Each structure stands twice: as C-alpha cells, then as structure tokens.
Amino acid sequence: MPVQAEQGRRPLGRVLLTGGTGMVGSSVLSALRNADSASAILSLSRRPSGYKHSKLTEVAFSEFGDAEAVTPHVAGIDTVSHCLATYSNCVSREAYEEITVNWLEALLHACETASSSMTFCLFSAQGARPDRGGPSFALKIKGKAETELFASTIARKFAFWPDYIAPTGSRDGWKMADHLLVPLQRLVPSIGVTYNELAISMLKTATGDPRQSAVLENGELRAVLG
Prior knowledge:
39% of the residues lie in helices and 20% in strands. It has one domain: Rossmann fold (3-Layer(aba) Sandwich). Helix 2 (67-74) packs across helix 3, helix 3 (93-114) runs parallel beside helix 4 and helix 6 (195-208) packs across helix 7 (218-225). The chain is of the alpha/beta class and 226 residues long. The chain has a 7-stranded parallel sheet, with helices on both faces. Strands 7-8 form a two-stranded parallel ribbon. The chain has helices at 23-33, 67-74, 93-114, 137-151, 178-187, 195-208, 218-225, and strands spanning 13-18, 38-45, 56-60, 79-82, 119-123, 156-161, 164-166, 192-194, 213-217.
C-alpha cells in the first residue's frame, strides 16, 4: 500500500531507519520505498536487507551503543524510525536493557547533537510502563526507554503500542499462536494490526500528527489507517 504525499502533511524527508531487517523494520523499509515524501533512506543495520532502491543507502553498522559513532549518520536527517529491537526471551535481562535502552540513549544523544528539530518514531510495546512498574521486566525496560525518548529535546517524538501484530506474507517463521490469531485478526481487525499496517501508521503519524509527542495505542494506530 503506497504512502502518498497529501496536502498539509509534512514530508518525511531524509529518513534514518534502524532495525530494517527485523519484522517491523522491514515493513517500515518497504513502506518508505513507496512513500512519495521520503527523499532518501539511510538504513543502519547489522546485516543487509537485500532490498535495492534508488533512494536507499544501507550501512553495515554494529556500534549502536556508541553515540559518537552514530552521530555522523544522523546529520541532515528529518525523520528517525527506530525499529531495532529483540525478544526478551532470547537474551539476558542485561542484554535486553542494553539493546532497548542504552542503544536508544546513544541514538537520542546523537540526534540531539546533530539537530533536535526532527521527528522520532519509536517501536515500543503495549503496556510499556514509564514508571517501570508491573510484573514484566521487558515492559519495565520498554517503559524506561520511552522515558528517555520523551525527556529528550527532540522536537517531535512518538511511541507506538500495537496489540497483536499479525505477520503478512509467507507463513515461514509463524509462531504457533499466529495460525489462530492471524485469521482472527482478519475477522476482528481491532485486536491488532499487521506488520504492514503498523508501518503505514508510523509513517502517517510522522507526516500528519499535529502533536509534538504522543503514545499511540492500538485503537489510534487503526484510526490513523483511515
């Protein structure tokens, strides 16, 4: 689904994408390639995506926790889409916090150093707790990351809280629950969004949301789709 330029919307301009080879990030990358208002896409990733496009530049990058290493890549950027994430059950708590919080802090510092007059979109999680409460350490850490984002001097900042995210395309990599939930989400769209819908909601928020900061939960993500 192309993301067309619309009257009254701000352009995406030069976009920095992280996590472009993950499930959400790859959907955002696909949407960006079809977005009229994205003039250039710089993807920082640990491995190539396999995409080829005239406005896409991919940089093999592993120093996400080093603000000085990140800073040259954010010069002239108008929109940041930070989709770099990992599953909490695949790494230790310490590694999860490093990836989720420390790497975000480095990117935020680099953005503030280069130019804080940009739009920053953070792929977060439903129930992330800025007060770091609740039983889930993953949601506490996600909440800590959001706190860092909203405390930054970046001009516009948004966090996205989808409910169930339904995979699109091939069934390769589907979890057991997806075989039940994907058909259910098609019948009852309000229980979640697809990866492609989440990507389009993120881009539409970046270009059209009049607020300076917001957390968008699932219902608002669906409303943005129209």
